[in-house]
Every structure is written in C-alpha cells, then in structure tokens.
Design goal:
Elements lengths: L1 H22 L3 E4 L4 E4 L16 E3 L20 E9 L8 E6 L5 E6 L2 E7 L5 E4 L9 E9 L24 E6 L2 E3 L9 E6 L5 E12 L5 E10 L5 E11 L4 E11 L13 E9 L2 E10 L4 E4 L3 E4 L2 E2 L3 E5 L12 H13 L4 E4 L6 H10 L2 E5 L11 H15 L5 E8 L9 H16 L4 E6 L14 E5 L11 H12 L5 E6 L25 H16 L7 E3 L5 E8 L2 E5 L13 H10 L5 E3 L6 E2 L3 E8 L2 E7 L2 E3 L2 E4 L2 E7 L3 E11 L2 E11 L1 H15 L3 E5 L21 E3 L5 E19 L8 E7 L6 E7 L7 E17 L8 E8 L5
C-alpha cells in the first residue's frame, strides 16, 4: 500500500506539471459549471425564449440518474443544455475548440445559433472548432442538443444489456491555441502518437507522430522539440527538428528517439511512467505543447503460458466494469472513478475489461498508474441492424486514436455476442473491417472478439487476433464445475488458438441468504442467493487458475449495474452479477474470496456473515485467508479448521440454539488479524422450513440440454410459463433433460412446440432412475395443434425425463416453447 501511495503522489505531481506546461502554450478551460438544462427540444436561434422551465446543473450530468434503474419507463429523447461564455477582443488571433469527453448519445453543438458540429455515439470524445462562430468582446451562447433514443445506425442499437444514459455526462473544456497548433480535432485525439519499437531491457526506440495544423494563410517554418522525461522530472532524451507547415491541411511530423536501459512499465509490480512532451516553436516563441504518458514495455502471447510481459509470464485475471453508480447513472466524477478502480486494485486484479464501450479518460490514465492491463472496446454488442457500419467504424477509430498512448491498453475489442449464420454475412464482414481499422491504426496491439458460445465453430468466431468466450456455466446453462471440462476440451481441440474467458459469473442479491442455495432461474427468478454466487466462484476460479494458457479471465461484473428492462433477483432494473453492490456500500463474499487468492495484502474474512438467521444448527463455516495459522472460535471455544486450498479454510460445526459468536484469527509477518460475526439459530423455524422444503422438493426440476445455449435458448424457457420464450437448437438429434429431486410417477406429458401448427416435429420421450439407463415411453410426432399437446403413456416412476428431438419438416431446428410434466408444473 505504501508503494501505491508513492505512485499516487508521483502522478499528482506529474499531472500538475502537465497542466503548467500546456498553459504556457495553450489554455484548457473547464466549462463544467453553471449550465442550464431542459428535458425538451428548443429553438436553436432563441433557446431562452422557450416557456419551458430550465434548471441549473453542473457537469457531468444525466437526466437518467434515477429513472433508468426503476425497472419501468425512463426518459429517452431530447434534452438541451445552454451556457454563455465571454471571449475577449484581445484573443481574435487565437483559435477556439470545444471538447466534449462524452455525450449520450447524439449531440448537436451550436454557437450563437450556428451548428458547429454533430457527433453520434455515447462514449468517445469529440472536438469542434468554434472560432468562426464566436463574437469577440461579447457573450456567446453555446447550445447542445442531446438525444439518447436507440437508433439502428448507432451502436449499441438497443438497451438489452446495459443502459445508454442521456446527457452531457462527462466533462467539457474550451481549448484556446495559437493559429499554429498540434491539432485537437483529429478525432479528439491528443494529436500526438507514440509507437514503441525494438523494446528490451537494454534499449528502446520511440517513434513519435505529431499532427500540426497551420491556421494562417502563409506557410510556417516551425521547430518541433520532443522530449522524454523520467518520473523524477529529468529529461532523458530530446529530438529537435524543423518543419515547413503549409496552411489549412494537417502536416504529420515524424521523430525518433532512442533510450538506453529503459525503466520498463511492468504491470502492478512496477508501473513506471515517463512523460513525452512535444513543443512547437515559431522562432523562439513556444506556440503549443502537449504532454502524453509513456510506459515502455514489450509483450507477446504464448500458447501454453498465456500473456508474456517484458519476457516473463504475467497472468491476466480481473473483472469487467460498467461506468455507473446508483442514483448517479453514468455521470461520475473522477473521485467516483477512482473509488471503483481502487476497489478493483484492492482485490488484486492484474487486468480489467472495460465493458462494453470507451470509458472516461481518467480511467485509462489511472490504469496506467496502477499497472492494470486494459482491454478497451466499442459497443458493438448483442445484435445488429445492418445500418451501423459507418458508426461502428467511426467509434473504432475514435477509441484507438484517443487512447493510443496509454501503456495500460493491450487489446482493442471489436464486438461482444454478435452472431451470424455464414462467413459472408454482414456482421462478419463488419468485424473484419473493424479489425483492419485497429491494425492499420495500431499494428502493435491485439484485437479481440467475443462469443457467448464456447465451441469456436461459429461464423463470427476467430476474425480477430484473439478470441474471448463468455462462459456462464452454472447460471445460464450447465453446472459450475463444467468450466474445467470446457477449458480442457478447448485446449485439446484448438491448441493453437489464443482463447480467454471474457465473462463468467452469476447473480447475487445480498438481501437473499440461504443455508441450502440452489440455482435460480436467471431470466425470471426472484431469489438470487449470495451463497450460490460464492460457491460458483470457488469452483470456477479453481478450474481457471490451473490453466495458464487461458490468456485472460474476467469476472462479470465488478459492480452491480442497471439494465432498464430487467426484473430479476428481487430488484427491478438491476443486473446482480457484481461483486460489489450498485451503491458501492457492500463488497459481497465473492470479493473477499478473490482478494484472498489474488492480493498480496493480508486477508481474513468469514464467509456467509449476512446469513444471520439460521434454521439449522449444522453449519459449514468457511474462512477466506492468505495468512498462516488460521484459527476459529465458536462461542469462545476453539474448534478445528482446515485448509481446503485456494485460500479457503473450512470447519463443519454444530451451532447452539440462539446466539452464536464466530471469531477467526490469523498470523502473517508476526502480525495478528481478526474477524468475527454473529449468527442466530431458531430450531422451531427450522422444522417449519424443513416441512415446506419437503413439500416443494417434489416439484423442483433441474434442467440440462445437449448443446450450449444462448440466453434466448435456455432450457429454463420450457418451464417459465410463457409461450413467448423457447428452447431451440439446430444441433443434430439434440435432447433436453428434466431432473426431479424425488422419484415421481408420470403417465402424461404436455409439450407446446414452437410454430407447432405449421411444423411436424419427430421426437421420443425417455425415462430413467439414475440418468444412465434410459427407457423409451413414447415415440412419434406432434399433432400440429395450437398450444400445449398432451401425450399419454403407461404411467411409470422416474427421476429423469428426457426428450430427444430431430428437427422438423421445414427447418433443421428443434424448438419447444413449454413443457408440462404432469403433477409437477405449477
């Protein structure tokens, strides 16, 4: 922690130097205070004449700070912001640029009623020159029209996975430069691009491209001075060259600098940062300057050891992160971003996936300082319309150019869970175009695309340098321990492909505690036990940790976040898969499991501390710790506790009726750490609960099927009570299996086939006691009736029911909307 504090102090000094250096040559003015806002459209020529009620706001601001998380309707439409600025007459020979770091999601910017530019896309910065529209010596009215309606030509094209918040939700600045400057309008990038070449511990070559713009009518002979400055403020090396810059067009100046024995940026252990300063001189006059971070490093991917940083294996494990807080939406301050990444760092992560879009500039800079390896991506997610090509390519270009110099970024993400049937389909071709853009702009970093399936045999797979797979075993399909078999099978089948687990996890509501947690229906379930999430992560991290060839693994998600249309897990509008609650007030048990496994900081944490009221006196007590000599007391009495591996210590204990005080202690580096919690046992409640559970057990159904389902094709869809959902697959001869927790006698089965009146589905029904030996009880086809069809057979007792399907007479798909197992379905 002391080392991290030193980094923070150094970064503060570095940033203060950057501001001073830039102010010598250009002014960057904060325009975040005292805007007027109205949730409506207005006349651009006379915005103040409207009868609507304007409200005073400071930026960042979103109008969806609370309504999006309600689970109901939220405002999606137009909002307008205005602000006046005074520009002094003495600045007539200057150039003025308005720079927005992020507006959700379409912004039209007007100055004194003149449209100076429009930007489409919520997540990238944009910058417009406003000099021609200004009135010098007078007040100037800035009007920004913002619209966050979903559009088929702007990614993301829907709100199915996350919210697109409306408003100017990131900072705004006014940049004032000389007529000759390093251009601020090259896709709102710094205008300076740093490329590293031939990097080793002995030397490094730094190639710098600076884009110069001459706003005069005459050619300018300029001197460009580029310096590399170490963390102590010492100039290490300088290049100085002369350039002739013609009017109006951008001139790219190229310089090369060499460093001997560079201090390498080495991830968390040593995130060393240089600064690269580019200065433009007109004669002896400094006319512009830009300072950028420089972290020198080299890396590669190994088929067996995964990510190799500066010549040594470096495991990439971490989290995905959405940029939003409860009651704030996406309008976050730098301090809130810092809070998030301090928690991410605390847990011991080495990498972070910034899902599913470009995030705040502070985030990338802070990751540079913390040494977190960053996966940055664009919001080409979930689906496509065929109209988003131009915007997706624009957002790819913006992402790369604006963040080109951040040493923490290693990977550009192209898409997440977008699918196609053929390799010639639109989304495949667009993915290839996005890959080409990223590699043309930045040949030294990798690209990655992500599938929700694990086979790597689909048309959208393997069109990037690296492949990610979202693996939700134990939640959307299969069992938690299926992760290990998938990892092993993937390596055997595709030993030469670089594959990562781009997402894994499950929902958990801290208000939901259970002594006997079971998997909820992830789509419609209302009770998401925290214990189930913790159990799943214990199993799956153990599987991932053993296989370093998986080049990265990313928990979904670090924080709970908003999905407006969801109503799951007991809270509307929320995805509960986070390890920390939406308001950042509670770190769930899984957080401490990973911290104990990943962090160097001492950890001692009693699991299930929120399971206070218990119905059973039997308890498996688990303690997470990376310390030695873990000890446990129950009501003041020492009890034996043993290591179970992966920083887990366990004890099977008998609790007392009433109050139980659980105390843990551990020693590390001669220092003792303690933790405690209190549980209560009520045996009367235990008997009532046991009776209720026994009555319900006979109605419980566990499901599985023969293929890897998408979120739209879950086996759970066949018992959710809705004819609008279904399970489907084009796999040859698939099956779907229902497992009862108790033996049941069944003589009739109801099946509602998808478009059953139009199609003929051949199928068989099989029964089993043990899931191994099966007996066929029915073979035939559907009767092409509407809705549920019932099939009768000789009543038999069974624990397992399996339907074997064979497509239909019109398509290769087997598809079932609903199944009614006699006597079981509610």
């Amino acid at each position: 922690m002391l080392y991290l504090q030193k980094i923070m102090l150094l970064s503060a000094l570095v940033f203060s130097n950057v501001i001073c250096l830039e102010l010598d040559a250009r002014e960057v003015k904060d325009l975040n205070a005292e805007w007027q806002f109205v949730k409506s459209d207005v006349d651009v020529t006379a915005p103040s004449d409207t009868v609507l009620e304007w409200q005073k706001v400071d930026l960042p601001h979103t109008w969806n700070d609370t309504d999006a998380q309600s689970g109901g309707k939220y405002y999606s439409g137009t909002g307008c912001y205005t602000k006046t600025i005074l520009v002094d007459k003495s600045q007539k020979d200057k150039r003025f640029f308005l720079r927005f770091e992020g507006v959700g999601q379409v912004a039209g910017v007007y100055v004194n009623g003149i449209l100076v530019g429009e930007h489409k896309g919520s997540y990238a910065a944009f910058c417009f020159e406003i000099t021609p529209a200004l009135k010098f010596g007078e007040q100037n009215i800035i009007l920004v029209k913002v619209d966050n309606k979903a559009r088929p030509d702007i990614i993301p094209v829907n709100r199915n996975l996350f919210m697109v918040f409306g408003g100017i939700y990131r900072p705004v600045s006014l940049i004032v430069t000389d007529e000759v400057c390093i251009t601020p309008i090259d896709y709102a990038s710094p205008g300076v691009y740093i490329q590293q070449q031939d990097v080793s511990h002995n030397s490094a070559t730094i190639n710098v491209r600076s884009k110069l713009e001459n706003g005069t009518i005459l050619k300018k002979d300029l001197t460009l001075k580029t310096s590399i400055i170490d963390a102590g403020g010492k100039v290490v090396v300088t290049a100085k060259d002369n350039y002739s810059v013609i009017p109006t067009v951008v001139t790219t100046a190229r310089q090369t600098l060499h460093i001997d024995n560079p201090h390498l940026w080495n991830g968390r252990p040593d995130p060393y940062l240089y600064q690269l300063k580019v200065e433009v001189f007109d004669g002896n006059k400094l006319v512009d300057a830009v300072v950028q971070p420089l972290g020198i490093r080299y890396y590669r991917m190994d088929p067996d050891m995964g990510f190799i940083l500066n010549g040594k294996p470096y495991r990439l494990y971490g989290v995905c992160r959405h940029q939003e807080w409860k009651d704030c939406g996406s309008a976050l301050s730098d301090s809130q971003h810092k809070t998030d990444f301090d928690m991410i760092y605390e847990m011991g992560t080495t990498s972070v996936r910034l899902a599913h879009y470009q995030q705040a500039e502070y985030v990338y800079s802070y990751c540079d300082q913390l040494g977190l390896v960053v996966w940055a991506e664009i919001p080409f997610v979930n689906t496509y319309t065929g109209q988003e090509r131009d915007n997706a390519k624009q957002q790819m270009l913006e992402l790369v150019r604006q963040n080109y110099n951040h040493p923490s970024i290693f990977i550009w993400g192209l898409h997440n869970e977008v699918y196609a049937k053929r390799s010639t389909d639109y989304p495949v071709l667009l993915t290839r175009e996005l890959h080409d853009i990223a590699k043309t702009e930045d040949p030294d970093r990798w690209t990655v695309s992500v599938s929700g399936f694990g086979s790597l045999e689909r048309s959208m797979d393997l069109h990037a340098d690296l492949q990610g797979c979202n693996r939700y075993f134990g939640w959307y399909y299969g069992r938690s321990d299926d992760m290990a078999n998938w990892i092993k099978g993937t390596k055997e089948k595709r030993p030469d492909n670089f594959v990562c687990i781009a997402e894994y996890g499950c929902g958990a509501n801290i208000a939901h505690q259970s002594e006997n947690p079971t998997k909820a229906n992830p789509i419609s379930g209302k009770f998401f036990a925290e214990q189930y999430q913790t159990d799943m992560h214990e199993v799956q991290w153990a599987a991932i940790e053993q296989h370093p060839f998986i080049w990265g693994s990313y928990l979904w998600n670090m924080f709970d976040f908003c999905v407006p249309g969801w109503n799951r897990g007991g809270t509307k509008g929320l995805n509960h898969k986070g390890l920390v609650t939406y308001d950042r007030s509670v770190k769930k048990d899984s957080f401490y499991f990973y911290k104990a496994n990943w962090s160097d900081e001492p950890v001692l944490y009693i699991r299930d501390r929120r399971l206070i009221d218990r119905s059973s006196d039997m308890a498996e007590i688990k303690v997470y710790s990376n310390c030695a000599e873990v000890r446990l007391k129950i009501n003041g009495t020492n009890v034996d506790i043993k290591s179970a591996g992966y920083a887990i210590y366990t004890c099977d204990a008998v609790l007392s009726e009433g109050k139980n005080v659980i105390e843990a202690s551990a020693v590390r580096d001669d220092k003792t750490y303690t933790d405690n919690c209190t549980w209560y046992v009520d045996s009367v409640a235990a008997k009532a609960l046991a009776k209720a559970r026994a009555e319900e057990d006979a109605r419980k159904i566990a499901l599985a099927s023969s293929f890897e389902e998408s979120k739209k094709s879950l086996p759970e869809n066949t018992i959710d009570g809705s004819m609008n959902t279904y399970w489907s697959t084009d796999e040859d001869n698939p099956w779907i299996r229902y497992v009862m927790e108790k033996e049941v006698k069944i003589g009739k089965l109801g099946i509602a086939w998808y478009k059953g009146r139009e199609r003929i589905y051949p199928f068989e029904v099989e029964f089993s006691f043990d899931g191994q030996v099966w007996q066929q009880v029915f073979k035939g086809t559907n009767r092409q009736e509407n809705g549920m069809e019932y099939y009768e057979f000789q009543p038999m007792e069974a624990n397992y029911i399996r339907l074997r399907c064979h497509g239909n007479n019109k398509t290769g798909f087997s598809a079932i909307c609903e199944v009614d197992i006699q006597g079981l379905k509610k």
